[in-house]
């Protein structure tokens, strides 16, 4: 999925928020527009901010996939904020934690080099993968966020994971009714990074250049 969320779209010169995630962000199994990323665009606009949210999430994606496709996304959208919601599929596929950690670190560095603020979105995996591995996987996100000084969402599915009836039959992907709660988990980390409409760096520079003698 790669959309600029048509509903409640921001102005054409508004800064971009880029979401690079997997099926949990790509509206897998639910109606288009019902996922938390689109709900975030609506909330941003309704809150008086002027940002375009681009959902570059792909179902089944891993951190390796995200790392390989991030550079062209950064070049195309020049995002003010980049949310990285990846890692769950790495764990499901048994990818070594060190590789997942390295991929995430490289994505953070690339986004920051492109001038983007970064938010790392944490994930948990079922305990049947082993308590030690599960805990190491979970703490990996917070450790990275602390070391790299990024924004941090502790657990994307907080308040959702305990409700079995909020999931599709596969018990992995949330139903549409769970996505408002997912947005509630993300929004407190995103909102403080937003600038009021008309205060983006690009608009400020444009304003300065239009003044007499500028």
What do these coordinates show?
With 214 residues, the protein is α/β, with parallel strands linked by helices. It is built from seven helices and five strands. It has a five-stranded parallel β-sheet with strand order 2-1-3-4-5, sandwiched between helices. Helix 5 links the parallel strand 4 and strand 5 (151-153). It is globular, with a radius of gyration of 18 Å. Residues 4-8 and 200-214 have low confidence and may be disordered. This is Arylesterase. It comes from Pandoraea vervacti.
Q: Can you give the mean pLDDT?
A: 90
Radius of gyration: 18 Å
Q: Rough shape?
A: globular
Order of helices and strands: EHEHEHHEHEHH
**What does the main sheet amount to?**
5 strands, parallel
Number of helices: 7
The tally of strands reads 5
Structural class estimated from helices and strands = alpha/beta
The amount of helix comes to 40-55%
Give the gist of this structure.
This protein is of the alpha/beta class. It is 41% helix and 11% strand. Helix 1 links the parallel strand 1 (16-21) and strand 2 (52-55).
Secondary-structure topology with pairs:
Elements: E1 16-21, H1 36-46, E2 52-55, H2 63-77, E3 81-85, H3 88-92, H4 97-113, E4 117-121, H5 131-148, E5 151-153, H6 179-190, H7 201-209
Parallel strand pairs: 1-2, 1-3, 3-4, 4-5
Helix pairs in contact: 1-6, 2-4, 4-5
Region (Disordered): 195-214
Biased composition (Basic and acidic residues): 205-214
InterPro entries: Ester_Hydrolysis_Enzymes, SGNH_hydro, SGNH_hydro_sf
